[in-house]
């Protein structure tokens, strides 16, 4: 009997692990916490009568969402004391990445993940359940122990914060996105910083997350001129010696920097609608947020 239960749990793990990972990652924005949470959920399932569960996908989703909300409430307070901008960990898909089996969609794009950081824990949960997972209001209310009216109110507040309207999704990248990122990389590594001007929108913003562990800008840097100056400073501070290549980050093209110590940084981009211009640059430098990347 025990062997049968073990086989059933193994089957559930293979079937639902990637799906649950995507839910928890949207909620938490950290890979290690996401992996630990999903692992703990399947450990908890060892003491559950599996055959009595009618809708396994909904049951497991509920476990992940409730645990994620508890962690998110705790993490939210810690992030308020974080040194500099707090950026989510990146899903970098290298050839050896253990995340390769994940099916990524637009609600896992890096710009989308950064956007979610504007929301309070409950707002984030309701927003994800409705916008990314297509839950009905009645399901959200039942899951969180709130009324349907309140769930609608929370979602409305969340949408205003992220400036999104009903049915809209974050802006998609163009098919030639990889080519544009490669152009950015070539200009940067050669020190041709002025050549980046044509790739940046006038109101471009760069955020660097060093977490107080490495040198980084404490505040976001606004405007093309200031961003170009900052990129020039980065290049002269040793980034030109690092090996760099275009990789897939959260389903889109980003840049991976590696030096003699290992992964130095991951840089992601957001582009303006219907243009080739970069509106946001996100640079994750905190070593603690780069440990999941397999070279």
How much of the sequence lies in strands comes to 15-25%
Order of helices and strands: HHHEHHHHHEEHEEEE
Helix content: 40-55%
Unreliable segments of 5+ consecutive residues = 165-174
Principal-axes geometry comes out as: globular
Global Rg: 20 Å
Please work out how many helical segments DSSP would assign. Answer: 9
Identify the strand order in the major beta sheet: 1-4-5-6-7-2-3
What structural category do the secondary elements indicate?
A: alpha+beta
Q: Give the tally of β-strands.
A: 7
Largest sheet: 7 strands, mixed
Classify the oligomer. single chain
Head-to-tail CA distance between termini: 42 Å
Mean pLDDT: 89
Short description:
With 295 residues, the chain is of the alpha+beta class. It contains nine helices and seven strands.
Descriptive overview:
- The structure is a single chain.
- With about 300 residues, the chain is of the alpha+beta class.
- The protein is about 45% helix and about 15% strand.
- The chain has a 7-stranded mixed β-sheet with strand order 1-4-5-6-7-2-3.
- Strand 6 (about 260-270) and strand 7 (about 280-285) form a beta hairpin.
- The chain is globular and about 65 Å long.
- It starts with a helix and ends in an 11-residue tail after the last strand.
């Amino acid at each position: 009997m025990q062997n049968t239960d073990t086989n059933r749990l193994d089957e559930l793990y293979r079937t639902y692990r990637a799906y649950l990972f995507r839910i928890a990652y949207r909620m938490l924005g950290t890979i290690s916490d996401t992996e630990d949470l999903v692992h703990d959920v399947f450990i908890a399932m060892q003491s559950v009568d599996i055959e009595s569960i009618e809708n396994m996908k909904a049951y497991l989703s509920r476990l992940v969402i409730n645990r994620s909300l508890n962690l998110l409430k705790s993490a939210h307070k810690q992030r308020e004391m974080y040194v500099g901008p707090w950026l989510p960990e990146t899903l970098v898909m290298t050839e050896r990445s253990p995340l390769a089996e994940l099916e990524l969609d637009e609600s896992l794009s890096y710009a989308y993940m950064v956007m979610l950081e504007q929301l309070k824990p409950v707002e984030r949960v309701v927003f994800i359940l409705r916008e990314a997972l297509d839950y009905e209001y009645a399901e959200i209310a039942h899951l969180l122990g709130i009324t349907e009216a309140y769930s609608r109110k929370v979602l409305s507040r969340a949408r205003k914060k992220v400036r999104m309207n009903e049915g809209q999704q974050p802006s998609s990248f163009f098919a030639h996105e990889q080519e544009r990122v490669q152009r950015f990389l070539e200009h940067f590594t050669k020190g041709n910083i002025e050549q980046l001007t044509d790739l940046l929108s006038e109101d471009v913003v760069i955020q660097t997350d060093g977490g107080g562990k490495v040198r980084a800008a404490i505040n976001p840097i606004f405007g093309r001129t200031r961003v170009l100056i900052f990129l020039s400073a980065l290049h002269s501070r040793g980034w030109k010696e690092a090996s760099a290549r275009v990789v897939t980050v959260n389903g889109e093209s980003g840049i991976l920097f590696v030096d003699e110590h290992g992964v130095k940084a991951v840089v992601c981009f957001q582009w303006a609608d219907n243009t080739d211009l970069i509106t946001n640059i996100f640079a994750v430098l905190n070593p603690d947020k780069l440990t999941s990347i397999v070279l």
